[in-house]
Specification:
By secondary structure, the protein is of the alpha+beta class. It contains 10 helices and 5 strands. Strands 1, 2, 3, 4 and 5 form a 5-stranded mixed sheet that branches. Strand 2 (178-186) and strand 3 (189-190) form a beta hairpin. The chain is elongated, with a radius of gyration of 44 Å. This is Tc1-like transposase DDE domain-containing protein. It comes from Acyrthosiphon pisum.
């Protein structure tokens, strides 16, 4: 019995002792030294002592009051990609390698397409089929040649004036109006009466902007009856050469338009 009574004071002394962790708590240390300290001042002192932001201190205390515990922030470490691990010299080398591979890949595809085109044209010609080529271009009203034929029998300007001739051609001051030209032809020459030429109305650097699917479709229908039987037409991949009759539905399309 006496042994148990001797152990009781020791247990009470153990409860009264403060662990090292409790002594190092900034909030309790401040309240023990200055019980009348204001809340905002205490938050600022804790932030200064711990070396963290004031908002972080307030957020942690608010979380503790709400949940009764504080969770440690689980920050995911972002893995560095290959470009971040190497220097600029190696990065440039990798970029050049990638561009070279893309260039070789596109070059192989272009060569393959050219081979297929030549093979098809050769096959059509062996079959005796007429191959027509169509394309668009433009010409300015002010375009002129740099060299002209000269009549060396003219001795002077007075001689040319007497014959009703001029001594030189006057170049225009500007390019003038632009004409859009569309035509089709084969090894036999251009298709007669199927020249499409009109005045440009758009001030654009690309003459393809003047054409559209409706104009090309109307002109194309007019040339089909004039072509030879079982013939072949070669054209490029201009946008107005292949126009979709029905638009692909989108998220903003109406139900009636989709069902139609």
């Amino acid at each position: 019995m006496s042994d148990r009574l001797d152990e009781v004071p020791e247990m009470e002394n153990m409860d009264d002792t403060i662990s090292p962790k409790r002594i190092n708590v900034p909030g309790k240390d401040l309240t023990m030294k200055n019980p009348d300290m204001q809340y905002n001042v205490m938050m600022a002192e804790i932030s200064k002592t711990l070396g963290i932001g004031l908002n972080s201190v307030r957020k942690i205390i608010s979380e503790y009051k709400t949940t009764g515990s504080v969770k440690s922030p689980n920050k995911k470490r972002s893995k560095k990609c290959l470009f971040e691990k190497i220097d600029d010299l190696d990065r440039n080398a990798l970029r050049q390698k990638e561009e070279m591979q893309r260039f070789n890949r596109e070059g192989r595809l272009a060569c393959l397409a050219s081979k297929n085109y030549i093979y098809d044209i050769r096959k059509y010609r062996e079959e005796g089929r007429t191959v027509y080529y169509l394309d668009e271009t433009w010409v300015n009203a002010g375009d002129c040649v740099e060299k002209l034929w000269v009549d060396k029998t003219i001795q002077s300007k007075h001689d040319a004036f007497n014959r009703g001739l001029t001594t030189d051609a006057t170049n225009p001051t500007g390019t003038g109006k632009r004409l859009i030209v569309l035509h089709i032809g084969s090894h036999k020459g251009f298709l007669e009466g199927r020249l499409l030429c009109f005045l440009s109305k758009k001030n654009s650097g690309d003459y393809h902007d003047e054409m559209n699917g409706d104009h090309f479709h109307e002109w194309f229908q007019s040339i089909i009856p004039r072509l030879e039987q079982n013939s072949v037409i070669v054209m490029d991949n201009a946008p107005y050469h292949s126009v979709k009759t029905e638009k692909i539905p989108t998220s903003s399309s109406k139900k009636d338009d989709i069902l139609l």
